[in-house]
Amino acid sequence: MRDVDLDCLHLIVRNGPFSPSALAKAAGLPPATVTGVLDRLEKGGWIVRERDGADRRAIQVRIVPERGADVLRQFRGMITAVEDICGSYSPEQLEVIADFLRRTAEAGAGEAERLSR
């Protein structure tokens, strides 16, 4: 699985379901790239593309529920590493780090929105 595939899979797990175009926007990728990613993820049995119940013309991308544990295994090494790093900081230090990351992400999202206009 490629890095971009894992990134998109992670987005689907955390925030899905997505339409392919919404996933492309969330991932910051061209729609054609996301089509290839979704083809690989679907072929690997990680996701399904389903017709939207409200609008049968629209497609929604969902994680295959039975693969949830497999998805977590894909991220286990990173999760363990981050837990180890976080364990070396005090709760107060983690609050400062979390605030910095949140504010940085908000600034980046705001700037990306401004640039996309």
Automatic annotation (TrEMBL):
Pfam families: MarR. SMART domains: HTH_MARR (SM00347). GO terms for biological process: response to stress. CDD domains: HTH_ARSR. SUPFAM superfamilies: Winged helix' DNA-binding domain. Transmembrane segments: none annotated. Residues 1-106 form the HTH marR-type domain. It comes from the Bacteria. GO terms for molecular function: DNA binding; DNA-binding transcription factor activity. Keywords: DNA-binding. This is DNA-binding transcriptional regulator, MarR family. The lineage of its organism: Bacteria, Bacillati, Actinomycetota, Actinomycetes, Micromonosporales.
